[in-house]
Amino acid sequence: LTGGASERETLPLVIGVHGLGDRPRNFAALYEELPARARVILPRAPEPYHRGFAWFPSRYLDGDEKRLAGGIDGAADQVAALIADLQSSLPTAGDPIVTGFSQGGMISFAIAVGHPDQVGLAVPLGGALPSPLLEDIDGDSKVAPIRALHGENDSLVPIAPTRAAVERLQANGHDVKLESYPGVGHTVPDTMRARLHALIIEAI
């Protein structure tokens, strides 16, 4: 609970999806100083990975885009189902917001295009949307609003393919924007975290 909210309040629902090898306890720091009154849910990925957990086994740099897309899509289905359950069981105000870093950012992208009715906004951080997940998306498709934040020096999930995916969605008329951070690698600096908080506040 953020912003001094209490458990029984009707609150905006924010889903924070951690990255590869991370765990919710660590990822919670990204939202601890969120000034808005909200309920932040931090799901844990299903597969153990080093000292944390993974949503799917493949990494972006493995180069197998089809396998990566399949892993992202399956994880997005799981998180979207969780969002639906949470929205029906918790006193929720407005449409849920999904955010996430790295693998979590990829899942956030995939929920926005594959489950647009589940969320009102997706904020992927250092995420990607492989081309197989864009094949069926055109101007007639529904896509939830996306505000992607990405470091320009990210060597683990390079920004160029993410920019190309965003431009493709924009060309089809969807409400999608990418904000880049010069000199930033695969991390979430204070400036990006502040922007994430601002986007959440705007959305609720």
Q: Which terms summarize this structure?
A:
204 residues; alpha/beta; six-stranded parallel sheet; globular
Please describe what this structure looks like.
This protein is an alpha/beta fold and 204 residues long. 33% of the residues lie in helices and 18% in strands. It has five helices and eight strands; from the N terminus they run βαβββαβαββαβα. The strands form two sheets. It has a six-stranded parallel beta sheet with strand order 2-1-5-6-7-8, sandwiched between helices. A two-stranded antiparallel sheet has the order 3-4. Helix 2 packs across helix 3. It is globular. The mean pLDDT is 95.
Radius of gyration: 16 Å
What is the overall silhouette? globular
Strand content: 15-25%
What strand line-up does the widest sheet have? 2-1-5-6-7-8
Order of helices and strands: EHEEEHEHEEHEH
Average predicted confidence as pLDDT? 95
The major β-sheet equals: 6 strands, parallel
Q: Structural class, from helix and strand content?
A: alpha/beta
Poorly predicted regions: none
Instruction: Tell me the distance between the termini.
Output: 15 Å
Task: Give a quick summary of the entry.
This protein is an alpha/beta fold. The chain has helices at 24-27, 65-89, 103-114, 159-171, 190-203, and strands at 13-17, 39-41, 47-49, 52-54, 97-101, 121-125, 146-151, 176-181. It is 33% helix and 18% strand.
What is the secondary structure topology, with strand pairs?
Elements lengths: L12 E5 L6 H4 L11 E3 L5 E3 L2 E3 L10 H25 L7 E5 L1 H12 L6 E5 L20 E6 L7 H13 L4 E6 L8 H14 L1
Parallel strand pairs: 1-2, 1-5, 5-6, 6-7, 7-8
Antiparallel strand pairs: 3-4
